[in-house]
């Protein structure tokens, strides 16, 4: 009987080895595709830079031709108004020059318009390229995780891997780190990096315009200042998302209030707050978790619920806190959505909420149905001692 079991394990191990080889080969192919996408992305960036420089150059030429056109039209009006002073040839010569300048001006304007359209299309292509690379890296990360499982000890896997094992927890931590790095990279690329690139271009425009027209140059400088302010604001938002410093300065309740003010301003959702004042009863790590959970829940509400009203309740006792967030949105099928989230990783926000609650030995319950809104109920320990008690209870 034991020999038969050993034979079965040997066959399974051989099948697993072949699967690992196939997946490894597919991973190498995906790596090649991602490298190709990165090369294409860099090529698009270089072309976009070239087009932007050409647009700047054309702007200067158009400005100069507009001055010449204005001057020639003025000259043509003077000549046409006094036939006795100028001969027919003089009038024809001025007219021909004015016509020549006008043709050059229209030609350059059309070139500028075409280049601007090319620039817009190139920027769209660049964003699509970045998303393709991001998707490829996500698939690669998932394949690497699968290989990590398959290349592990088959006997341990067959006997049932403990979800609290070092391997499982290590993989989850790495996945979370990679997801966070991708999010930060995307936020920086789509936000402050774009504004700073525009600011650099505006500096060149300001330099040209100031030499020709002080008032217009000052307008460009004001626009440049606004771009830099937006970039700075977005950098601060990214830093705040990494660690909401106001938790240390203002406390949990006021930090939640400030977040809700911003959400109401951005989305128009009216939010009622019922928050029990928090002092030192709740540990900082738990406070951060509460803040993050509210943040992720409202990200889902803004994206999917179409809600116009919501409510946040926070209460706690000697061991646990209860957070309830509800909305009057369109609702969804909770069971179906959670199944899709777990099998297809379609909502990292929802996964993040569950992971955060589970890590802190808490409980979460989501109730929703189509047309009846959604309610999130989260129960968390208020300190590490309760968390340890919960773990010992398991």
What are the salient characteristics of this protein?
394 residues; alpha+beta; Glutathione S-transferase Yfyf (Class Pi), Chain A, domain 2; Heat Shock Protein 90; five-stranded mixed sheet; 12 helices
Give an account of the 3D structure.
The protein has 394 residues and is an alpha+beta fold. It has 2 domains: 2-241, Glutathione S-transferase Yfyf (Class Pi), Chain A, domain 2, CATH 1.20.1050; 245-393, Histidine kinase-like ATPase, C-terminal domain (Heat Shock Protein 90), CATH 3.30.565. It has 12 helices and 5 strands. The radius of gyration is 31 Å and the shape is elongated.
CATH class of the largest domain: Mainly Alpha
Outline, from the CA principal axes? elongated
| Chain-averaged pLDDT | 78
Summarize the biggest pleated sheet. 5 strands, mixed
The second-level CATH architecture of the largest domain is: Up-down Bundle
And the CATH topology of the largest domain? Glutathione S-transferase Yfyf (Class Pi), Chain A, domain 2
Low-confidence stretches: 153-169
**Cross-sheet strand order for the largest sheet:** 1-2-3-5-4
Share in β-strands: 5-15%
By DSSP, the count of extended strands is 5
Secondary structure layout plus pairing:
Layout: H1 2-81, H2 88-150, H3 154-159, H4 166-190, H5 192-212, H6 214-242, H7 246-249, H8 252-267, E1 270-275, H9 284-305, E2 309-316, E3 320-327, H10 334-344, H11 348-359, E4 363-368, E5 374-381, H12 384-393
Helix pairs in contact: 1-2, 1-5, 2-4, 5-6, 8-9, 9-11
């Amino acid at each position: 009987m034991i020999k038969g079991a050993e034979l079965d394990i040997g066959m399974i191990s051989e099948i697993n080895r072949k699967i690992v080889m196939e997946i490894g080969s597919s991973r190498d192919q995906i790596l090649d595709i991602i490298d190709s996408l990165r090369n294409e992305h860099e090529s698009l960036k270089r072309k976009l830079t070239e087009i932007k420089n050409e647009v700047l150059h054309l702007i200067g030429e158009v400005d100069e031709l507009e001055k010449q056109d204005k001057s020639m039209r003025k000259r043509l009006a003077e000549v046409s108004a006094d036939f006795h002073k100028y001969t027919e040839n003089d009038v024809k010569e001025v007219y021909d020059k004015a016509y020549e300048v006008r043709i050059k001006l229209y030609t350059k304007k059309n070139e500028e318009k075409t280049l601007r359209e090319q620039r817009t299309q190139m920027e769209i292509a660049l964003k699509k390229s970045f998303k393709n690379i991001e998707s490829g890296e996500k698939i690669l990360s998932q394949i690497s995780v699968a290989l990590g499982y398959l290349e592990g000890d088959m006997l341990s896997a067959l006997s049932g891997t403990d979800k609290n094992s070092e391997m499982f927890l290590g993989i989850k931590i790495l996945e979370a780190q990679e997801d966070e790095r991708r999010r930060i990279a995307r936020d920086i690329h789509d936000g402050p990096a774009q504004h700073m690139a525009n600011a650099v271009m505006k500096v060149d425009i300001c330099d040209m315009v100031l030499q020709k027209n002080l008032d217009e140059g000052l307008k460009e400088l004001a626009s440049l200042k606004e771009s830099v302010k937006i970039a700075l604001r977005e950098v601060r938002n990214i830093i705040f998302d990494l660690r909401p410093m106001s938790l240390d300065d203002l406390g949990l309740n006021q930090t939640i209030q400030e977040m809700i003010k911003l959400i109401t301003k951005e989305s128009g959702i009216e939010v009622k707050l019922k928050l029990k004042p928090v002092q030192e009863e709740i540990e900082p790590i738990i406070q951060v978790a509460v803040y993050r959970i509210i943040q992720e829940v409202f990200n889902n509400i803004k994206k999917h619920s179409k809600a116009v009203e919501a409510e946040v309740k926070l209460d706690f006792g000697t061991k646990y806190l209860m957070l309830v967030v509800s909305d009057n949105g369109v609702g969804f099928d909770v069971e179906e959505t959670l199944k899709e989230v777990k099998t297809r990783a379609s909502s990292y926000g929802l996964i993040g909420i569950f992971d955060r609650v589970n890590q802190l030995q808490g409980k979460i319950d989501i109730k929703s149905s189509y047309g009846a809104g959604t309610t999130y109920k989260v129960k968390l320990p208020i300190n590490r001692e309760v968390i340890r008690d919960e773990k010992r209870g398991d």
